[in-house]
Structures are given as structure tokens and as C-alpha cells.
Description:
The chain is built from ten helices and seven strands. A four-stranded parallel β-sheet has the order 2-1-3-7, with helices on both faces. The longest helix has 25 residues, at 173-197. It has 282 residues and is of the alpha/beta class. It has one domain: Rossmann fold (3-Layer(aba) Sandwich), CATH 3.40.50.
Amino acid sequence: xxxxxxxxxxxxxxxxxxxxxxxxxxxxxxxxxxxxxxxxxxxxxxxxxxxxxxxxxxxxxxxxxxxxxxxxxxxxxxxxxxxxxxxxxxxxxxxxxxxxxxxxxxxxxxxxxxxxxxxxxxxxxxxxxxxxxxxxxxxxxxxxxxxxxxxxxxxxxxxxxxxxxxxxxxxxxxxxxxxxxxxxxxxxxxxxxxxxxxxxxxxxxxxxxxxxxxxxxxxxxxxxxxxxxxxxxxxxxxxxxxxxxxxxxxxxxxxxxxxxxxxxxxxxxxxxxxxxxxxxxx
Length: 282
């Protein structure tokens, strides 16, 4: 049977939707807020937000509309490299009759990878006025709080290393340009991998601004001596066509977000699935 394969970050996973949340209740029977959860050292954030796709997320809703079995490979906090990794792992199982949708995350998202964890010291969240902004300090919100059996001083040392590494290595204009440019290469190579599988592939994004446009902004922040191209320009890299307009449906600011969270709600996901259905399949 043909399948729908989807790849992406928390927005594709269906983060914060009802079936992937096990709320902790206060004495009045109301769910604790994120700030209350963060303030309580006895609560494990990862026990509340389950690391699995939601049946309410747009991939399952779209799969039902198409009559396809769904494999939602997306996971919270994914950067471009992690999405490419999702595709690399799943590619051998993708058949020519399948449908593939990649929902690329924020180009500015930075992840650091180690065998036992993935750190997301910087992530991008939606600002309804400009549609993107960079927010620091989201390790805990992505399930990267200290392990239950860890020594606190070791965790403090790791997080200090993350913070210093990001501040001194990944935030200067040269490193930002390098990351954005390599994201475009990652996106292009991932599209090539999927094209080789023969399945119909659609590329979407969670942000309205294309990667080449963001690369150009990063280029203008460089010293003038670095701005002239010797590298292939973004336009020469033959990147895939990416739908950046549809993100305004999944991130529609006129609709309330998921309960006690900034992520899209069940309504957002259902509307987005129907939008994709009418745009690409009817």
C-alpha cells in the first residue's frame, strides 16, 4: 500500500497536541503552565511532552484525506541537518508510489549533535508581526533538561559549554552565513535523495522567507572583503522549489494556538491538511 512520508520539526510532528501531552495538574485540577513546569525541579518535561507524532497533526489528517498510510518521521527541535538525517534513514523504505512532504524548519535554527543528545541552544519561534525571531535558551523546552540520573555539576558544565560555543563560534556574521549556505546545500542534496526514490515529493516550509533570501541578508552582514562570490551563488545550486506561502495557514495568528503552548492547534493542523489537499491533490 502506498504511504505518505512526512519530515520536519515539531510543527510536522504535532507537538503540544492533546494526544502527545500528559499534563501535570495542580491542586485545582488545572494543567501547570510551562513556567510552572520549569520552576519545579521534580517535574520532568520529557514525561509531559511525548516524543512521538500526533494523530491530530496535519500528516495524519492529510493521509486520511488521501487514503494513504502515514509515516510521520518529524521530531521536535529538528534543524535542517536533522531533517536531512530523517530522510537519509527513511529513504530505503520510500517507494515510487509513495508521497513525500518535507516541511523545512527555520533556517536560523542551530543544533549541536552528540551521540547521547541533541542540543538546540537556538531556535526560531513565530512572531506574528514579522513572522520570525530568534529566541535563546530553549534547551529545556526541547526536552534537554538534565537527565534524572545525572550529576548536576556535569549538566551545568555541558550547558555552559553549549552557551559559550554558540556565543563565540556560531553567532558571528561569518558563522551565520556559513550555516545558512550549508543549509541550502543540505536542502538541495536531500531533495536529490528523494528524487532518486521516484516518489512524488513536495517541499514546504514553516517560514515565509526563502533560504536564498536569508542567505543574501547574511551576506550583506559580512565584511565587504567577503561579500563577492567565488563560491557558487545560491541561484547556481539548483535548490528545490519550496512552498513558503502555505506556512501562513499552519501558523495563522488569528486562530488560538495549542493549549498552554505557542505551537499550532488542532484547528491549525486540520486547516493546513485541507489546504495541502486542495492545493496539490485536487
